[in-house]
Amino acid sequence: MSVPAGFKRLALAVSVTVGAGLAALGLASYLVSVDAARDAVTAEVRSVTGLEPTVRGTSTLSMFPSPRISLGDVALAGFTGDEPPFVAEALVANVRWLPLLTGRLEIADIALVRPHITIRFDQDGRSNWSPLVDSLARAMRPGPQSDPRTLSFSEIRIADGTVVLQDAGRAVNEVLENVELSLAWPSIAKSFAATGRIAWRDEPLDVSLAISDFPAALAGDNSGLKLRIGGAPLKAAFEGAMSMRPSLKIDGTLAADAPSLRGVMGWVSGRSLFGVGLGRFALKARTNLVSGTLAFSNLNIELDGNAAEGVLTYGLSGRQTLQGTLAVETLDLTPYASAMRLMGSDSRDWNRKPIALDWFDDIDLDLRVSAARVLTPQTRFGRTAVAATLRDGRLVVTVGETHAFNGVITGSLSVAKTPAGAVLRSQLSLDNVDLETCLAELIGVRRLEGKGNVRVSLDGAGASVLGVTRTLNGNVSLRAANGGLVGVNVEQLLRRLERRPLAGSADFRSGRTPFDTLAVVLKISQGTARAEDVRFEGSNVRLSVGGTASVPGRELDLTGTASLLAASVEQPPSFELPFFVQGTWDDPIMLPDTQALIRRSGAAAPLLDAVSADKRARDAVRSAIERLGGGDGAAALRRYGVPIPETTTPPAAEPAAPEPDASAAEVPTR
Question: Which segments carry the region annotation Disordered (predicted)?
Fold first, then answer.
């Protein structure tokens, strides 16, 4: 047989087959009318779901490229209320070929095109879909008279759907858009599965749901449950069981992770969260959901590189609540350091950043945390146990014990949100702490060495840490022993000034003065601290100090007396010198009372008396001081205690007075 003849026979066979198919399609379309097809599809849906489809649009029957029946504008009846919560632009049923050739319509699968589904819960928690659940349970309940055609199709597809979830009791109104789901209907097996993609709050999510015993789940009995959610904000997987009698209960294992917990919280709450930390997050726990309470046991959680174990309980009904206990080996607070810093970035001024407490309104908190080590950018804490409670916009952190600065800290700190910012209150006890590191890291003071006890009772209000310092009230006390005052050698200075009162002050801001005991009691009112009792006692030196300090400005204005003690305690001090302390906390200046030094000097004392009584002598000394020091001679004389009247005209030229001796040129100025 020639090749052309073979091709002719193949072409003839194909033509016959195509013709037969066309004839079959024509015969099928002749045997099945559109009205009959519509009635068959609605009857099939009614049998499967128990709901009555209402076709409000045009119905069509198409044979190409495959037989399908399309019902336009479909609503499902059988819900509570008047408005149908389930409507679709079209319901498309794909029909099987062979049954159709015999004049019988059998559905292979159903597609819902652009459906709009509303799920609503009333104040009592009952859903408008409750009749659907009851109908499905009746339709799928096994029985001796069950119709094998009842569950003929096994797949329902949702294309470009919208799901609206409303909960009147919790004021929830959420919308799921671009819903693309494939529902594996339990036509043969008892399982149910849904896979596809949805979009919630502009974030696309891949979802997968599997129920091992769908009829039991519809009846409210126990059934296996698997859920997977994957997207850019969050990935989560749950595997366990669920039941709905007498109320919803879910129990199993949950695993979740997110690149940013702050991002997830902002995405879920619907508003951006500002602040620091709350980055990389991961969780794995035994999970139980019952009566609106979500409980995590055998919990392993990671946040910003910190790993903890414990239990957590999260209340979903009513106001959100979080309770739990966590244990962590090493707690690194570095990611949150900028939010907790009292000092500014230059470590010389108070933090001016606004105190952000918006999240105080969202949740109630009762959390206990224990850690073997706590790390901050400045220091390292040892064993720590704290409890945090948040109620009605007020956060209270109770420090049961924390080992810090080679001592122990206990007490409490509270922060309450106000329209103007925050109200802060503190009651802290720092026992046997290292003063140098403690004061340096807490308030930026680096002038004391040794071990001591600090008691703090303060309160204030403001929009920032700086604002709080301006309204600060309370008390601060310090008791220390066997330490030192850094930056001045008082004993050396006093001995030199005892020998030569006008010998200068080159060493005022260097050296170290040891002490045996130190006692400081401060009374703070509206940001001004008053020294009620300041005593510094060493083996050879005693200091007593009074005056005030500005907390917001971090400035000192103190006066005191330095005493050089005699060899015997029964004898009075061998030398006493009044002094001033002025300047900033970080770098104060200590200056002696120059009038006392001048009066102690045998050569300069008569001169001081002379210039105090005689205007011509006073003007001459003033002129000499200005020539020697290049400064304001009148101001210098005022510091010596010499009265100088204010004048707007320069004094008349007077004969020059005799110049003081060389030691007078070394008189220190404040």
Answer: 639-670
C-beta atoms surrounding 624 within 10 Å: 18
Unique residue bearing structure tokens 């104040």: 123
Among 79-83, 129-133, 295-299, the range with the most confident prediction by mean pLDDT is 295-299
DSSP label at 399? E
**Residue 607: which of 653, 665, 561 has the closest Cα?**
665
Q: What is the pTM of this model?
A: 0.71
576, two tokens: 């006493």
Place of tokens 């679709």: 88
Section 653-657 average pLDDT:
45
CA distance 331 to 413: 19
Contacts of 148 (CB under 8 A, 6+ apart): none
**What is the number of H-type helices and E-type strands within the chain?**
14, 30
Give the torsion sign (CA, 31, 35, 36, 42). positive
SS3 120: strand
pLDDT at 25: 53
Which residue in 328, 429, 332 sits closest to 379, CA to CA? 332
Which tens digit of pLDDT belongs to each residue from 111-140? 899 999 888 877 776 777 776 666 666 666
**Helix (H/G/I), strand (E/B), else coil: 14:** helix
3-class DSSP state of 531: strand
- The arithmetic mean of pLDDT across residues 489-508, rounded, is 69
Confidence (pLDDT) at 150: 44
Dump pLDDT digits (tens) for 194-225.
999 999 999 999 999 999 888 888 777 899 99
In angstroms, rounded to a whole number, what is the distance separating the alpha carbons of residues 500 and 575? 12
pLDDT average, residue stretch 523-535? 93
**Mean pLDDT score, 574-579:** 83
Q: Is a pLDDT exceeding 60 seen at residue 14?
A: no
Q: 442 or 455: which carries more pLDDT confidence?
A: 455
Where are the strands (E) in 78-171, listed by range? Answer: 86-95, 107-121, 155-167
Binned at pLDDT 50, 70 and 90, residue 89 comes out as very high
What is the number of alpha carbons within 13 Å of residue 524 lying toward its C-beta?
A: 21
In order, the DSSP letters of 610-644 are HHHH-HHHHHHHHHHHHHHHSS-HHHHHHHTT---
3-state helix, strand, coil in the chain (%, to 5): 25, 45, 30
Angle at 253 between CA 252 and CA 256, to 5 degrees: 140
DSSP string of 489-525? -HHHHHHHHHH-TTS--TTTTSSEEEEEEEEEEEEEE
Q: What is the DSSP string of 378-391?
A: S-EE-SEEEEEEEE
Query: Exposure of 271 by Cβ count < 10 A (0-12 exposed, 13-18 middle, 19+ buried)?
Result: exposed
Question: Which residue, 285, 371, 387, 367, is CA-closest to 328?
Answer: 371
Question: Angle 130-140/34-49 helices, nearest 10 degrees?
Answer: 90
Residue 194, classed as helix, strand or coil, is strand
HEC string of 207-271 equals EEEEECCHHHHHCCCCEEEEEEEEECCCEEEEEEEEECCCCCEEEEEEEEEECCHHHHHHHHHCC
Task: Give the confidence band of 354 by pLDDT, cuts at 50, 70, 90.
Answer: confident
Q: What is the chain's Cα-based Rg?
A: 43
